[in-house]
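DM from R.C. (forwarded with permission)

"hey, sorry to bug you on a friday — could you get me a structure for this? deadline for the figure draft is monday and I only need the backbone to look sensible"
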Amino acid sequence: MSVVFDCCRDYEPGKLHDSLQKMISSLDAEKLIRSGDRVLIKPNLIAPRPAVDAVCTHPAVIRALAMIIRDCGGRPYIGDSPGYASLERCLAESGMQAVINELGIEVVSFKLQVEVGRPENRILKRFRLAAPVLEFDRIINVPKLKTHGMMGLTLAVKNLFGCISGYDKARWHLRAGHNRRLFARVLLDIYQTVKPDLHILDGIMGMEGEGPTHGQAVSFGILGASLDGIALDYTAARLIHYPDSTPISREAMDEGLLDPGKVKVTGDCVMENIPAIKPARGSSDAAFPFHRLIRRLLVKKPVISSSRCHRCLVCVKHCPARAMKFIDRSVRIDYKACIRCYCCHELCPYGAVQVKWGLLR
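My reply, with the result:
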């Protein structure tokens, strides 16, 4: 399990291309792409936000990667399933559409789903997956380095949740609720089913605090690459001084998918020069399930800011537990029904959903 990092302080095209090329060559990943191969690029396009916000994978990374794919004789495609807005809108507002137009990259919709079976999975023995994911010769996963209110960090493994779209995403959030361990196992099952060939981590500008959409952009100045997304996630967390193992890394170790002693890390980045990330509030693990009263007192909950709320009803439409209602021209939350998945916080376009602790915090 080899992981390589390179220091890259900005998105200048020439330096970025050289950095990616160097990392890919060190992994011998160029040999993965044969002439004529159709290569699917899976970025993080969770919401329609500009590149400067560090919410989505930066378009400059996709541009450099697509050029390398073409140099290898491959044909680059791009696809994702955003959290609530259309893929077209996310591509346009993130700046990705300009790259697509420049290089003639074909956009792939993830709306069509097919049922897949993988009996060896722990949780998802049979589930619905975006059909195009199964149709390509190679898949390159390109996550953004960000914090996440539920899972601590969202990196390579978590980024593949975008291969499930629409109501199926909500259904798995509903089933997992605030059980981090269960949701980590679901994500690992998706990872093992999709089996990307290469993972490229955009950590030049990342996000800390209330990620994955409402945190603060921060310069980490790193790019990461590996053929193993689990190993990449584990080492990236250490590189940015994340204070704890993430639920995904812990589950991967428990299931024998990660042996830290066998991860070989190379590259030019010096750990002391990389700022320590500020985690999202309450993203450390806790024992679940709680008694209803204890949960009410101790577990953080979503709260609507009336001054920021635009009544777009994105939160109401996408609440897996149907705990959010539009009553008397305002959004109300039924906390007895709320499963604390924080989808509302993640998807709100206006940052109107804040996450606050219970009565004892």
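R.C.: lifesaver. Confidence is low (pLDDT under 50) at residues 286-295.
me: no worries. The chain is about 30% helix and 25% strand.
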